[in-house]
């Protein structure tokens, strides 16, 4: 099943955990999202990130784990996403998965892949 949900970031707390004399800093962020559409609920995210230059086109990468609590097409429960991306202005490679065995409630057994991109979550799943 393929579905799309929109999200709004409602909180973002960013902290550098390494700031070398040369090279880009490494950061971590705690993020909260509100989902609407095929997914209704809240996402709680812990993200690691690296911005290689002053501009997004200079290169960047992130990886995150996110617990989503609410409903997926009306079925209530929670699940955990593992998603990320790496690239620059010319080539961005994204990946994402529903962590097998992480779903609860009516979503127990949920498996699949995801892409998280600029306020949109695309899920390709089986239940």
Q: What is the spatial order of strands in the main beta sheet?
A: 1-2-3-4-5-6-7-8
Distance between the termini: 9 Å
Q: Fraction of residues in helices? A: under 10%
Taking all Cα atoms into account, the compactness measure Rg is 15 Å
Class per helix and strand makeup? mainly beta
Average of pLDDT: 96
Identify the CATH class.
Mainly Beta
**Number of discrete domains:** 1
Number of helices: 0
Main sheet properties: 8 strands, antiparallel, barrel
What is the CATH homologous superfamily assignment? SO1590-like
The gross shape turns out to be elongated
Write structural notes for this entry:
The chain is mainly beta. It has one domain: SO1590-like (AOC barrel-like, Beta Barrel), CATH 2.40.350.10. It is 0% helix and 70% strand. The protein has strands at 2-18, 26-37, 39-51, 60-72, 75-87, 92-98, 111-117, 120-126. It has an 8-stranded antiparallel barrel. Strand 3 and strand 4 form a beta hairpin. The radius of gyration is 15 Å and the shape is elongated. The N and C termini lie close together (9 Å).
Briefly characterize the structure.
With 127 residues, this protein is an all-beta fold. Helix content is 0%, strand content 70%. It has a single domain, classed as AOC barrel-like (Beta Barrel), CATH 2.40.350.
List key phrases describing it:
AOC barrel-like, 8-stranded antiparallel β-barrel, mainly beta, about 130 residues, elongated, about 0% helix
Please describe the topology of this protein:
Elements: E1 2-18, E2 26-37, E3 39-51, E4 60-72, E5 75-87, E6 92-98, E7 111-117, E8 120-126
Antiparallel strand pairs: 1-2, 1-8, 2-3, 3-4, 4-5, 5-6, 6-7, 7-8
């Amino acid at each position: 099943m393929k579905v799309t949900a929109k999200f709004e970031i409602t909180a973002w707390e960013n902290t550098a955990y390494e700031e070398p004399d040369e090279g880009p800093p490494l950061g971590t962020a705690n993020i909260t999202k509100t989902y609407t559409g095929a997914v209704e609920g809240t996402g709680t995210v812990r993200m690691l990130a690296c911005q290689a230059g002053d501009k997004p086109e200079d290169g960047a990468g992130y990886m995150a784990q996110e617990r989503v609590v609410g409903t997926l097409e009306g079925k209530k429960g929670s699940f955990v996403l593992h998603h990320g991306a790496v690239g620059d202005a010319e080539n961005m490679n994204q990946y994402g998965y529903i962590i097998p065995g992480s779903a609860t409630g009516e979503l127990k057994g949920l498996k699949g892949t995801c892409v998280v991109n600029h306020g949109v979550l695309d899920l390709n799943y089986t239940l």
